[in-house]
Amino acid sequence: MVKHTRAFIGMFLLAGALSSAYPQEQAPPEQVFGESIDVRVVNVEAMVTDGKGKPVRGLTAKDFRLLVDGGEVPIEYFTEVLDGKAMTADTGGAAPPLTAGEAVGRSYLIYIDEAFSLAAVRNAALERLQRDLTLLADADQMAVLAFDGSRIDVLSAWTRDRAALAAALEQARRRPARGNQTLAQQRKLQQDVDWILENADSFEGDQIAAFLNDTSGRISPEARTELGKTAAAAAGALRGFEVPPGRKILLFVSAAWSMGVAPQLYRPMIEAANRLGYTIYPADTAKSDAREVTAFDALARTTGGRAVVSAKMEVFRQVVADTGSYYWLGFTPAWKADDRRHRIAVEPRRPDLTVRARSGFSDLSRRTENAMKAESVILFGGAERDRRLIVQLGEPRRAGRGRVEVPVVIGVPVESLALMPQASGFLAEAPLAVVAMDGRGGRADLPTARLKVELAASPRAGTFARFRTVVKLRDAAQRLVFTVRDPVHETSIWGQAEYAPLQRGR
User: Fold this and answer.
1) Which of 146, 333, 380, 500 is the most buried (most CB within 10 A)?
2) Which residues have a Cβ under 8 Å from the Cβ of 344 and sit 6 or more positions away?
3) Mean of the pLDDT values across residues 219-247?
């Protein structure tokens, strides 16, 4: 989360109250919107090379050790994917997840960071990518997102339509890129260094050394702020955008020089990629130096990817070549839904081989999945079929300087509640997540909470249970999205409300 948006909602007060219900509304028309996450089997794509860096083919599950948190676990599923098709001649005793000759589709998410990219370099890369759309196989699909420093725009949802993708990439080239401005702000700090080096004769040697030591790591506050927003938005895009099945690839179109600003800010993006099974391929769009590109590469390798660099800007061609052939290993962990992150390591049993694979996965809780759904709705909108919460904001009241407390009534369909019998009737619980976004794209996520109420009798079907709560907000216009986990239908349902700031004097 970006630090400067954290004050949107400072606290969340819950009151467990339920009264007789609203009448059930007519079901809205069905729309397609995916949010499924495969939480049964963890799939790991492993690229294997020999001592000369050449791909190695024909291995079986017996040629690998799969380690989770340092302990070896059995490889339950295994297949070699060669040029986009499954090969199952010998799986080393593991079950093949795909039949021989079956096409294995790839989902390419193109994420364009406009805050750090230089327009000319970005456009050259996107123009080449557009020409290379012919490399998409019949089973492949692509989506295109662009981040302008404030908001994420969906230029193309998941599609196999090359004409639609070409139009999205052409649109992306016409959008402004602010990399020159951001880079100029960072380079201003170099002017002091250049000046003292030019006037070195006026200083003692130890004075020059001390000055260079003090200034070598300086970071432009503007660049750091931009990177904070960029990295948080990229992580939010992965968590909130529709997650496709199968092989998932993120082509991160950005600038490697941002690695010199605050590389630790990219950790949420890496965590989201490993959590959802994305392999990251960063493409430098600023002609950064070799050291910065190497840092980009190291970042990507924690997800099983690598930096793609090409003088001809054939970055997509490299990604296609690198992701077409690999080994697919699968295992079933003891799922506990505790949000714990687990380390993964794939080791070859032959010492002359090297493996590149993602480094971890997360055991998502239902609360976290619910929070991800809230983030998805706030960033990209939600399916109308899931918009089944009734949200009513009450009269706000002052709660400190620039802050207000707002009563909220949330109507939850009784069909979406898991009612637990108890001695005095029934107990209903509903995990709740809330996300706020202002008009400039700044957003804040609340820690997940739990609505809870005791019922004397089972409510009638077709009605809404009414929960009351209070949110504390910054007194600024913003959109609030509420999501509740529906354990009956294994999904999350949502509703929204617009908050208008109080008038002065009230």
Assistant:
1) 146
2) 42, 44, 66, 67, 68, 357, 358, 359, 360, 361
3) 81
